[in-house]
Amino acid sequence: MAHLSDGTLRRMVDDPDVHNGVNDARHFESCPACQARFKSVAEDAQSITSLMAAPELKVDVASAFNRVQAAPAARPKFGFRLPVLRPGSRPMMLAFAAAVATVALLATALASGDNIFTPSTVTPVPVSLADMQALSQLSAYGDVSWTTQPNLQIVTSAAEAQTISGLKPPTVNNLPSTVSTTVTYAAMPKAEAVFTFSKDKAAAAAAQAGKTLPALPAGMDGAKLTVTVGPAVAEIFGNMKPPAAGSDVTQLSLPQLVVAESSAPVASSTQVTMMQLEDYLLAQPGISAELKAAIKAIGDPSTTLPIPVPVEFATSSKVTVQSKYDGVALGDNTGVGAGVIWINHSVVYGVVGSVKLSDAIKIANDLT
Amino acid sequence: MNLGMRQVASVRTDDESFEALFTAEYARVAGIANRVLADPHEAEDVAQEVFIDFHRLHSASAQYAPAWLHRAAAHAALNRLRGARRRQKRELAQGADEGAQTLDPQKQVEVNEDRRRVRQALARMAPKPASVLVLRASGLSYAEVAQALGVGIGQVGTLLRRAETALRKEVTRGTSL
Question: How far is it, in rounded angstroms, from Cα A322 to Cα A231?
Answer without folding.
Answer: 23
